[in-house]
Amino acid sequence: MNFSPVGNKLLQDAVEQLSSLPGIGKKSALRFALYLLKQPVENVERFGNSIVSMRREIKYCTECNMISDGPKCSVCADQRRDHRTICVVESLRDVLSIEATGEYRGVYHVLGGVISPMDGIGPADLPIDALCRRVEGARVDEVILALSTGMEGETTSFYLYKVLSPMNVKITTIARGVAFGDDLEYTDQLTLGKSIANRQIFSPEI
Known about the structure:
Dna Topoisomerase Vi A Subunit, Chain: A, domain 2, 13% strand
């Protein structure tokens, strides 16, 4: 569908870029573009610059692979957190969901994905070696596997269990008996908080 009724290439280019965002169709993109067109230029420049700065300047924590402003993220740099407990998650969105519950005071390890042969993602494509080094090189008492309950998430959890088991560390998983969706970001805070508080020893199905 052509959303450039007056043949304006600049507007059409803006709509194309906005519609490339997840969940944004051409109609919504046009509405956003027209909204921005009505705003003061300095406001739009500030909006655009913040996105460019985020992409260019954001870093990843050398400890947990979470986004950060410096070498370490705010969680890893916080000595009040329990650094003996590591919660393994797929993405930053999962970290935000868990933090919103207020039930967890440990640290994280962000994989940035899950093992998915169909998508060409294997163990070597994820920072699993970095997780192993953290467990081996520090006093870690527990690793919580907080991955999705889909096939890829379960496969990744099982693989992590196999590589971490010889390291004499407690391996747990968020409670499966509490109903919640496959993706942590879509789980309500109360349910997710309970599933973390009631976590169980990981028991792989052979």
